[in-house]
Amino acid sequence: MSSRAEEPTAQPKQAMDGSRLRPMLELMRVPADRRLVLARITAARAGIRLEASGGLNIKMPLSLSHSLVLPTKLQMFGSTRDLFFSVQALLKKHVPMPTRDQSLLTYWAMSTWFPEFLPCLPSLVITGASSAADVLLQTLVAVCRRPILLAEANPAALRALPLGELMPTLLIRELQISGCMAALLDASTQPGYLVANGKQFQQAYCPKCIYIGEHPNDQPGWTHSIHVHVGGSSARSLHRAPTKDVISDFHNRLLAYRFLSCDKVAASKYRVSAFRPEICTMAEALGAVVVDDTELQVGIAGCYKNAMSRRE
Question: Count of CB atoms within 10 A of residue 191's CB?
Fold first, then answer.
């Protein structure tokens, strides 16, 4: 994005079909001076355009404002399938885990770009070696929308963040979550639930990934979550976290995908019937984010079945 916050961008193929896409406001960062700007994204046959859209109304701690990872422009991503497998390949490169878990993580990461268009968004619970979990959390920074790495999960930490306005993805490393906090995190996988923020209340609904320790039996009894176990305690089996250039590339492509796909995600009619009703709802939400690809949508049921079988 230019320092003037206005720029015609490379044209993803899907935008050329003449469909009428609604304008979207998105928080972005100007590369030249690292400023945060609220950009208005519009599309027509001539291409996609970004332009400044007034000041920010989100109050956040200065350290968060400086460190928050945001897109800098819109970038071509090819097809839904191209983007899906590029995210999956990144996860595979950095963290050893079964292919089905890599796929499940990919669905979840892409869903973080559409929380306000989904009826719910399951939390992602990670167990396994701490070294692998740390690399996974840092890798998820590259593919999740507005990621925030947190070293603990407690009510004070949540109150300090503008969750309702920012709707970030929380990537949490917390080995001792209280029962009260676990209940709050579980309830906030669905929109509408409020938490106290000083004298005010804010919505706590946002994507969350929580690393809770090495063993699967450490997992609290959350009903609205999916579980992934990571291995690879040897440093030789792990790669460093993605570089800033890689992170920027994924964020720019995923923003373009969000803009071009949000209406289809919101209107998704993908349905799953192989599980309990609450599990079907979560699987349907993850399947909804891979638009125009029936095979990928069907694939979420197999991934989810595998994940749930390890919990029950």
Answer: 17
For the chain, list the domains and their CATH numbers.
7-67 (no CATH), 80-244 (3.40.50.300)
Q: What is the distance, to the nearest Å, from the Cα of residue 192 to the centroid of all Cα atoms in its chain?
A: 19
Tokens at 252, concatenated: 């720019």
**What sign results for the dihedral spanned by CA atoms 24, 8, 257, 147?**
negative
Phi-psi region of 114 (alpha: psi -120 to 50; beta: other; left: phi over 0): alpha
Q: If you ran DSSP here, which 8-state letter would residue 119 be given?
A: S
Q: What is the pLDDT of residues 230-284, one digit of tens each?
A: 875 444 456 788 999 999 999 999 999 999 999 999 999 999 887 888 888 889 9
What's the predicted TM-score (pTM) here? 0.88
Separation of first and last alpha carbons in the chain: 47
E strands within the chain? 7-8, 24-29, 36-44, 47-52, 123-128, 147-150, 169-173, 194-197, 200-203, 208-213, 225-230
Which residues make Cβ contacts (< 8 Å) with residue 281, sequence separation at least 6? 119, 120
